[in-house]
């Protein structure tokens, strides 16, 4: 099993990203990580 969790260190008005912006970044990074993991598992 693999668990991926992305959280923001700053969740107040000082954050440089909105929740929607953070969600897009987290989704992109998570997708890249899963794709890389699948490739590595497929090639041993």
TrEMBL record:
InterPro entries attached to this UniProt entry: Nucleoside_phosphorylase_sf
Keywords recorded for this protein, A-Z: Glycosidase, Hydrolase
Organism: Salmonella typhimurium
Class of this enzyme: hydrolase
Keyword Oxidoreductase in record: no
Protein name as annotated: 5'-methylthioadenosine/S-adenosylhomocysteine nucleosidase
GO biological process: nucleoside metabolic process
One of the record's GO molecular function terms: adenosylhomocysteine nucleosidase activity
EC identifiers of the protein: 3.2.2.9
Domain of life: Bacteria
SUPFAM superfamilies tied to this protein: Purine and uridine phosphorylases (SSF53167)
